[in-house]
Design a protein that fits this description.
The chain is built from 6 helices and 5 strands. The chain is α/β, with parallel strands linked by helices. The chain has a 5-stranded mixed sheet, with helices on both faces. Helix 1 (about 50-65) crosses helix 4 (about 130-155) and helix 2 crosses helix 3 (about 85-95). The chain is globular. The mean pLDDT is about 95. Strand 1 (about 10-20) and strand 2 form a beta hairpin. It has a domain at about 10-140: 2-Layer Sandwich (Nucleotidyltransferase, domain 5), CATH 3.30.420.10. The longest helix is centred in the last third of the chain and has 24 residues, at about 130-155.
Length: about 200
């Protein structure tokens, strides 16, 4: 059962990212402030929710949240600054786009560089503990998946409609067969072997 808040009576923004471990595509981050008492039986950590149910949840979260924002950092910048810094940058950009200023940031994970003096709390596995972080995980994941489906049309040979850029056996096999695309992260795993 997800907790509705960390501290009652304040504006809490849940923050999470999607795509950190992928071989291709951007990293996305989302920040969400839910209204008091928000509840949906399907809401959970995006990894525990089916793709179909994530797509059901996305418009509900976007319509009912007090404010939400999604941001991305692309594969070129990920290679330049590294994935950890890129993930933090995407979160910072998303937080900066919120229409309300939160009293507390709830961050999924164990590390986060402070954002302009806002108080934050890092929560390992927070996307399975707090509703606002779970909501952020759903938005980050669905917005990233949507992006990967678009670039799949450009490079269908990598099956990004199925693997979403993650390093599955299928995806690694396609890289061995076709080399890397302009969307691949040149500093990641098997991709490093195919940089010209």
């Amino acid at each position: 059962m997800l907790q509705p808040y960390f501290k009652e009576g304040i504006l809490e923004a849940g923050c999470d990212e999607a795509g950190r471990g992928c071989l291709a595509g951007p990293v996305f981050a989302a920040s969400v402030i839910l209204p008091p008492g928000f509840y949906h039986p399907l809401l959970n950590d995006s990894k525990q929710v089916t793709e179909e149910n994530r797509e059901i949840l996305r418009p509900i979260i976007e319509n009912e949240a007090l404010t939400w924002a999604v941001a991305m950092v692309d594969w070129v910048e990920i290679d330049e600054i590294n994935i950890l810094k890129a993930s933090f940058k995407a979160m910072h950009v998303a937080i900066g786009q919120l229409k309300l200023s939160p009293d507390l940031l709830l961050i999924d994970g164990h590390l986060f560089p402070a954002y302009f003096g806002l108080v934050h709390k890092c929560v390992i596995g927070g996307d399975a503990l707090y509703a606002s972080i779970a909501a952020a995980s759903i938005l980050a994941k669905t917005h990233r998946d949507e992006f990967m489906l678009k670039i799949h049309e450009e490079y269908p040979q990598y099956c990004w409609n199925k693997n979403k850029g993650y390093g599955t056996a299928q995806h690694r096999g396609k890289i061995k067969e076709f080399g890397i695309s302009p969307y691949h992260r040149k500093t990641f795993g098997i991709c490093k072997e195919y940089v010209q």
